Structures are given as C-alpha cells and as structure tokens.
C-alpha cells in the first residue's frame, strides 16, 4: 500500500465524516418535523434552520461518492452494484426529501403542503436508516467472487447487525438534529428538543451496548484490531456521556459537538475495522484491498493536488455561509 | 416478449430514462441561472425595481428546476456503480478525477451560493446579492465542463494507455484528457444549448401571459431578455454544432453517415437529404427529398467532396477492431433515430432562431407591435417546450451514435454491465423511477404554471417563515 492510497482511504473517511456530521443534523431536523414539532408553524421554524444549508451538506455525500469512484473505482463498483436495492432506496429517500423543500413552498392547499412535509420526514428517516444498514453490512464477510463482484444475499443486507446499525445511525442523527435545533431556534421547540434528547440519550446508551456486542459477534473488529476498536468504542461512550452532560448543563454547542463527534466516530470505527481492506469477503483471498482497489498513482497524485487547492476554497465559502445565517430562527409565538 | 427484458436492455433503458429526465432540468437550470443573473445585474446597474422583481420571479422557476435537477443528478452518480460496475472498473482511472473535481469545484459552489442567494434578499446589498447568483451560474457551468470531459473521453479517448495486467484504461496525460478536442467542441455546444433552453422558455412562458394581457410591461421586458439570450445562444450553439460536425466526420464516420442516412458512399458533390425512407434491413434508402450540393457544403464548407457511407464505415470498423472484438460485432448504429433526431435538432434550432428574430423585430423600440402579433405570441408560447426536445434529440445523436461502445473503440456496452444486477431488480427500479419521474415532472410543471398565474406580485412562501393561510381567499384566486 502506498502513502497516496492510504491518504485517499483516509480522505474518503473524512468526506463521509463531513457528510455524517452535516447532513446528520439535516436528517435529524427532518425527523423532528414529526417527532418534535406540534404544528405547521413549528415545522416551518425547524425547516428554516436548515433551509440555506441542506443542499450544500448533501454535496458531502456526492463528493464522497465521486472521490470513491475516482480513488478506489473497484470499491465504488463493487459496493454500489452489490448493494443495489439498498442504494436505490437511499436514492428514493434523498429524492423525496430533496424536492420537498422547494415544493412545499409552492403548495397552495393544506393537503398539498402536508404531502411534501411528509416526504421530507419519510426521506429524512429512510436515508440514514438505509445508509446505516449499508455501512454495517460491509463490515461483515460477504460473498465476493474473484473479480470483486458482491453477490449479497438478503441475509447479508438484512440481519441483526445491519438493523441495529440502521437504527443506531438514525437515532444518533435524530439526537444530533435535536441538538442543532436547540442551538438554532428560540421558544418552545428549543426547550422540548432538550427534554426529548434527555430521554433519547438513554436509548442511545442501550443501543451502543447492543451495537458493540453485535460487532464482537458478527465482525472481526475485536479480534483483528482489538486495541483501536476498543478505544473507539470507549470514545463513543465518552462522547455520548459528554452529550448527556451538556444536555443536562444546557450547553447547546457542546451537545452538538458531542453528538457530531459520535457520528464521526461511527465512520472512524468502520474505516478502522475495514483497513487494509475495503470490502471483506467470506473467502479471505477475495477481499478487496486498498492496495489493489485504487486508481493509478498518477490519478491519485492529480486528485491530491486538486483537492489541496479546491477543498480549502470550498470550505472557506461553505463556512462563510454558516456565519451569514448564524442567528436563531425565532418561533412564531414570539 | 419476456426475452426482450434482459439485463442489458433494461439497464440501457434505465440509463436513457434517467439521463433524459435529468437533462430536462440541467440545461434549463444552467440557463435560468444566467437569465436570472442578467436580470438581477440589470437591477443593480439600472436601479429599476422591475428588474429585481424579474430576477425574483424567474428565480422561483429556476429554483423549482434546480431542485428536481439536483435529486435526479444523484441517480446519475450512483448509477455508474449500480448498473455499470464493469464500466466503472474500466473507466475509473479516467472518469473519477473529473467527477471528484466536479463535486469539489462546482457542486459545493452552486449549492452553497444558491442557499445564500435564496435567503439574503433583505440582508445583502444588491451588488453582493447579485454576485451570489453569478456564483451559482458559474458553479453550474463549471460542472458541465467536468462531466462532459468524462463524456468526451467516451466519445474520443485521449491521454490514456491500456493497463496490460488488468486490461483497463490508465491515465497517462491528464492535460490530454482536459484538452480533448471532442470536449472543446462538445462543451460550448451543450452550454449554449443550455442558455438557448432558458432564453426561449422564459420568452415562451412570458408570451403566454402577454396573450392574457397580464402584467404587460413586466412580461414584455421578459420576452425581450429571453429572446436576446436565446438568439445569441442558438446561433452560437449552431456554430459550435457545425464545428462538432467537422470533428465527427473524421472521428466517427459511422455516426455521421447515420445522421445523414447514407449507406453507400455519396457522389461528389454530395446532396443533402431533407427527408428519407430508410430500409434498415437491406441497408437501403428507398426514397428521399434531396437538396444538391448541401451535404458537401455542410461537411466540408465547399461545393464538392464525397461523404463516406455506413457500409464503408462498417468495413473499416471491422478491419480495425475484428482482431480484438471478433467478427460478430454489429457496428451499424440506430440509423433512423439518428437521422430524425438530427433533423429535429437542426431544424428546431433554425426555427428557434427565426422565432427570436421575428419576436425581436416586432418588439423593436421604434415600432413595437408585439402585443398585436397574437399569432407570434402563440407560436412563442408553444415554442417553450421545443428546446427541451432539441436537447434530447442532440443527445440521442451523440450517445446512440456511440453504439456499440461505451468507450469508443475500447469497451463495449455489453461488457459494461454489472455482473450482479438482475433483470428483476432493474424492472423494479425502472417502474419506481418511472412513477417517481411522472410525479416530479407533473408537479414541477404544475407549480411552474401556478407561479406564472400568480404573477410577479405574488409573494410565495419561499422563506418558510411566512406561511400564509392555505384556505385564505387569495390562495384560491388564479
């Protein structure tokens, strides 16, 4: 494995971390439109917190996918074709959600508006759940042939770990979204988001225990890399506790950081466990490795240069847009 | 009948359906960003509130198109991996970098600045606010360059070598990939096509409202701006199309011969067939209406020169590729589709130019009689849809003319498919996509129509914070 290959493996993880952190709270806010908001005004208030940002946040997923295609074409090809129906469902979720923002603004009847508010909720629930399933499906051994084709069975895609994984990611994003709402709103939703999170955090603790147990049973994470896996799991718990503590102390920024770091740690856990593979085969000889899944050194070099120039520029205006909309969205009741 | 539903056909159908649907919104959005940016800049320069109203109003329609364009674009990125995994493996070393650059450079820019543009009307000074929409436009345009550089490689591979171990393409010269001559005739053609689309769509939609004598000054100005953008763009698009033709005659003689419906090499000088009856089975043209000299003129810009027919092109392709791909390859492209698509595109383009010239003439400052020319307003209204058909027709020529390759001369469509994908999966996803697109397309058109009806003075609930009573009287007034 070359340094460049390692760098791009890490960069793909970084892009997914960006996506989990940023689109994580977007999804969470989408879920909160039904789980937290009590009426149309509150829903509008919640959606206004992500209105200017959700599209840019989603670009992190597009970039992660594009960068994966560019740096590890064999991984991209095997992953997306192998989990065909799951990726299709992610797309359906993202489509339903993506059009809802604009369409709801144009709807003229209460019914029409409610349709697009519902597609926002369903899409915001569907996308993280299925993505959680995919990410926990690829850390278990899969039937992969010599050419790298993944013939994933239903059991490979839907099993205890993938369902718990899907629930865990969805739950974590909901908590993250509620923390974002606490930071970005005023009034009743702000206090209720805190109260809801104070309850949900206990579900998260339970979820983490089950998740860690299933990791032990269904993956080789604890046997192949016991030290780092153990450390990341401990960190997951620590940052969950930090989130809990900051919810109790009503420190909103710290809560958001806590839940965000937990989401990032999920990605780190998966990439750490995969390393040096990108796809794990039941027949170990057919596992797809970083070493032979990547593009040529020339392509990786060009992409490194391009990223070094473009990413800081993109980050600069990306962050600027958050500073422009730093104010809280007030509640209708005043 | 069931035999026809094989994986390859279903996957090709899915690619055609998803890209054609996506490409209704891409050129429209790119062009609408430009038109909106021009309107807002006129507001900044002339300080006339009406131009701001225009930018806001047409911006609403732009945002609708952008939303559908974004979500259908996601499908494209996933689709290469999902349905065409062996293509992705083959092309990854070339395709990946432009796609990643497109995301980093273009997608971040358009998505961030569109958020800024939407929500800062009251907060930014007019010039700064106008800059936001220009960045959106820049992002959309840059995005076209990068995705087309991947497409150009598929049409005319440059800057690569074949990896001897894997048999896949390997990048050797990134400069050559970006400077691909195919790209620099294709990109301007596509981008001017995009500006054309928005120009005529704006003019056409505004013309409908003028027929109803609604907001006459506002829509009259909109018609003029739309037609000016449209006329400049359609002329440029045709010019660039001509350059592209010059390139294709040499590079892909089969595609060119098919667009002209020529089986046997032509005489010298070559006549141009306006219409043709084509017998694809016996490789014969059974009837046509010809214009002498014109094909020589179009092909070589002079009054002589024969053009190679498909039969000759076929022989040459067999001679060139039989060693690697075998004797059984069929190199004949879907000739009828190419022949008629080309005529729809070229004829449609000329028709658009004519409409623009007439519209601008009748609305000239000295003697403005546009409102009296109801026939012309009506024609313009119907013309709203034409650029969308032209865009699709153009892509039919380019992409179906690539048959039987995904990457010209290197990799076939049949080899590109995912070995794991089943017909059942494809049938299911095709049906769901079709239903989804029908709803999205229908809703989008409905909302555009409603927006037009409400007119420039209606304040839509764009900012989510100001929800209006859905049962109020105003909500039901058309």
Automatic annotation (TrEMBL), chain A:
<dbReference type="GO" id="GO:0016682">
    <property type="term" value="F:oxidoreductase activity, acting on diphenols and related substances as donors, oxygen as acceptor"/>
</dbReference>
<feature type="transmembrane region" description="Helical">
    <location>
        <begin position="6"/>
        <end position="25"/>
    </location>
</feature>
<keyword id="KW-0813">Transport</keyword>
<feature type="transmembrane region" description="Helical">
    <location>
        <begin position="115"/>
        <end position="140"/>
    </location>
</feature>
<keyword id="KW-0479">Metal-binding</keyword>
<keyword id="KW-1133">Transmembrane helix</keyword>
<protein>
    <submittedName>
        <fullName>Cytochrome bd-type quinol oxidase, subunit 2</fullName>
    </submittedName>
</protein>
<keyword id="KW-0408">Iron</keyword>
<keyword id="KW-0249">Electron transport</keyword>
<dbReference type="GO" id="GO:0070069">
    <property type="term" value="C:cytochrome complex"/>
</dbReference>
<keyword id="KW-0472">Membrane</keyword>
<feature type="transmembrane region" description="Helical">
    <location>
        <begin position="295"/>
        <end position="320"/>
    </location>
</feature>
<dbReference type="GO" id="GO:0019646">
    <property type="term" value="P:aerobic electron transport chain"/>
</dbReference>
<dbReference type="Pfam" id="PF02322">
    <property type="entry name" value="Cyt_bd_oxida_II"/>
</dbReference>
<feature type="transmembrane region" description="Helical">
    <location>
        <begin position="160"/>
        <end position="181"/>
    </location>
</feature>
<feature type="transmembrane region" description="Helical">
    <location>
        <begin position="202"/>
        <end position="222"/>
    </location>
</feature>
<keyword id="KW-0349">Heme</keyword>
<dbReference type="GO" id="GO:0046872">
    <property type="term" value="F:metal ion binding"/>
</dbReference>
<keyword id="KW-1003">Cell membrane</keyword>
<dbReference type="GO" id="GO:0009055">
    <property type="term" value="F:electron transfer activity"/>
</dbReference>
<feature type="transmembrane region" description="Helical">
    <location>
        <begin position="228"/>
        <end position="247"/>
    </location>
</feature>
<feature type="transmembrane region" description="Helical">
    <location>
        <begin position="83"/>
        <end position="103"/>
    </location>
</feature>
From TrEMBL, chain B:
<keyword id="KW-0472">Membrane</keyword>
<feature type="transmembrane region" description="Helical">
    <location>
        <begin position="426"/>
        <end position="448"/>
    </location>
</feature>
<feature type="transmembrane region" description="Helical">
    <location>
        <begin position="190"/>
        <end position="211"/>
    </location>
</feature>
<dbReference type="GO" id="GO:0009055">
    <property type="term" value="F:electron transfer activity"/>
</dbReference>
<dbReference type="GO" id="GO:0046872">
    <property type="term" value="F:metal ion binding"/>
</dbReference>
<feature type="transmembrane region" description="Helical">
    <location>
        <begin position="57"/>
        <end position="75"/>
    </location>
</feature>
<keyword id="KW-0812">Transmembrane</keyword>
<dbReference type="GO" id="GO:0019646">
    <property type="term" value="P:aerobic electron transport chain"/>
</dbReference>
<keyword id="KW-0479">Metal-binding</keyword>
<keyword id="KW-0408">Iron</keyword>
<keyword id="KW-1133">Transmembrane helix</keyword>
<keyword id="KW-1003">Cell membrane</keyword>
<protein>
    <submittedName>
        <fullName>Cytochrome bd-type quinol oxidase, subunit 1</fullName>
    </submittedName>
</protein>
<dbReference type="GO" id="GO:0070069">
    <property type="term" value="C:cytochrome complex"/>
</dbReference>
<feature type="transmembrane region" description="Helical">
    <location>
        <begin position="375"/>
        <end position="397"/>
    </location>
</feature>
<keyword id="KW-0349">Heme</keyword>
<dbReference type="InterPro" id="IPR002585">
    <property type="entry name" value="Cyt-d_ubiquinol_oxidase_su_1"/>
</dbReference>
<feature type="transmembrane region" description="Helical">
    <location>
        <begin position="338"/>
        <end position="363"/>
    </location>
</feature>
<dbReference type="GO" id="GO:0016682">
    <property type="term" value="F:oxidoreductase activity, acting on diphenols and related substances as donors, oxygen as acceptor"/>
</dbReference>
<dbReference type="GO" id="GO:0020037">
    <property type="term" value="F:heme binding"/>
</dbReference>
<feature type="transmembrane region" description="Helical">
    <location>
        <begin position="20"/>
        <end position="45"/>
    </location>
</feature>
<dbReference type="GO" id="GO:0005886">
    <property type="term" value="C:plasma membrane"/>
</dbReference>
């Amino acid at each position: 494995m070359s340094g460049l290959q390692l760098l791009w493996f890490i960069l793909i993880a970084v892009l997914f971390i960006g996506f989990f952190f940023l689109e994580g709270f977007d999804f969470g806010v989408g879920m909160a439109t039904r789980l937290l908001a009590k009426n149309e005004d509150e829903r509008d208030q919640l959606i206004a917190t992500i209105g200017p940002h959700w599209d840019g946040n989603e670009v992190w997923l597009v970039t992660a996918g594009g960068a994966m295609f560019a740096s590890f074409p064999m991984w991209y090809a095997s992953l997306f074709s192998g989990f065909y129906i799951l990726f299709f469902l992610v797309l359906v979720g993202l489509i339903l959600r993506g059009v809802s923002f604009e369409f709801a603004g144009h709807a003229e009847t209460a019914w029409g508006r409610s349709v697009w508010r519902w597609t926002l909720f369903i899409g915001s629930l569907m996308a993280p759940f299925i993505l959680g399933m995919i990410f926990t499906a690829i850390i278990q051994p899969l039937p992969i042939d010599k050419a790298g084709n993944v013939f994933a069975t239903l059991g490979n895609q839907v099993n205890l770990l993938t369902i718990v994984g899907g629930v865990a990611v969805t739950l974590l994003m909901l908590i993250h979204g509620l923390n974002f709402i606490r930071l970005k709103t005023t009034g009743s939703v702000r206090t209720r988001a805190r109260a809801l999170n104070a309850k949900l955090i206990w579900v998260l603790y339970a979820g983490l225990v089950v998740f860690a147990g299933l990791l032990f049973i269904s993956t080789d994470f604890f046997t192949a890399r016991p030290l780092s896996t153990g450390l990341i799991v401990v960190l997951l718990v620590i940052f969950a506790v930090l989130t809990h503590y900051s919810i109790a102390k009503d420190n909103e920024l710290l809560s958001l950081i806590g839940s965000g770091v937990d989401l990032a740690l999920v990605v780190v856990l998966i990439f750490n466990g995969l390393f040096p593979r990108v796809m794990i085969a039941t027949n170990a000889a057919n596992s797809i490795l970083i070493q032979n899944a990547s593009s040529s050194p020339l392509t990786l070099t060009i992409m490194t240069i391009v990223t070094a120039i473009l990413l800081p520029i993109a980050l600069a205006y990306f962050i600027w847009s958050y500073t422009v909309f730093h104010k809280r969205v007030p509640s209708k009741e005043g | 009948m069931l035999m026809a539903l094989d994986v390859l056909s279903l996957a090709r159908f899915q690619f055609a359906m998803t890209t054609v649907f996506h490409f209704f919104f891409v050129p429209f959005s790119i062009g609408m960003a430009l038109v909106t940016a021009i309107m807002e800049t006129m507001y900044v320069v002339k300080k006339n509130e009406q131009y701001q109203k225009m930018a806001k109003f047409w911006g609403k329609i732009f945002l609708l198109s952008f939303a559908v364009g974004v979500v259908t674009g996601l499908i494209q990125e996933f689709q290469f991996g999902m349905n065409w995994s062996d293509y992705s493996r083959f092309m990854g070393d070339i395709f990946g970098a432009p796609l990643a650059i497109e995301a980093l450079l273009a997608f971040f820019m358009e998505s961030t600045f569109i958020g800024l543009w939407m929500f800062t009307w009251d907060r930014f000074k007019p010039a700064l606010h106008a800059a936001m929409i220009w960045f959106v436009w820049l992002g959309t345009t840059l995005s076209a360059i990068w995705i087309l550089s991947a497409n150009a490689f598929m049409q005319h591979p440059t800057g690569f070598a074949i990896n001897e171990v894997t048999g896949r393409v390997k990048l050797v010269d990134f400069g050559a990939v970006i400077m691909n001559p195919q790209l620099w005739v294709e990109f301007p053609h596509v981008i001017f096509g995009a500006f054309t689309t928005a120009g005529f769509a704006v003019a056409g939609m505004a013309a409908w409202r003028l027929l109803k004598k609604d907001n006459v000054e506002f829509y009259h100005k909109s018609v003029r701006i739309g037609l000016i953008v449209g006329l400049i763009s359609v002329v440029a698009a045709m010019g660039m199309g001509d350059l592209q033709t010059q390139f294709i005659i040499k590079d892909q003689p089969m595609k060119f011969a098919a667009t002209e419906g020529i089986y046997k090499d032509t005489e010298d000088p070559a006549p141009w067939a306006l219409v043709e009856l084509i017998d694809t089975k016996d490789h014969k043209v059974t009837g046509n209406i010809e214009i002498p000299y014109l094909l020589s003129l179009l092909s070589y810009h002079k009054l002589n020169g024969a053009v190679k027919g498909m039969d000759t092109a076929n022989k040459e392709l067999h001679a060139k590729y039989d060693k690697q791909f075998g004797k059984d390859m069929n190199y004949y492209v879907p000739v009828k589709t190419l022949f008629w698509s080309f005529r729809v595109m070229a004829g449609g383009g000329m028709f658009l130019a004519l409409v623009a010239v007439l519209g601008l003439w009748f609305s000239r400052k000295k003697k403005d009689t546009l409102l009296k020319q109801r026939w012309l307003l009506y024609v313009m209204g119907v013309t709203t849809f034409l650029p969308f058909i032209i865009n699709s027709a153009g892509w039919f020529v380019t992409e179906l003319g690539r048959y039987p390759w995904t990457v010209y001369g290197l990799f076939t469509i049949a080899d590109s498919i995912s070995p794991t994908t089943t017909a059942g999966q494809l049938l299911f996803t095709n049906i769901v996509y079709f239903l989804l697109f029908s709803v999205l397309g229908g809703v989008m058109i409905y909302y555009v129509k409603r927006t037009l009806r409400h007119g420039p003075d209606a304040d839509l609930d764009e900012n989510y914070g100001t929800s209006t009573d859905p049962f109020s009287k105003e909500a039901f007034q058309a």
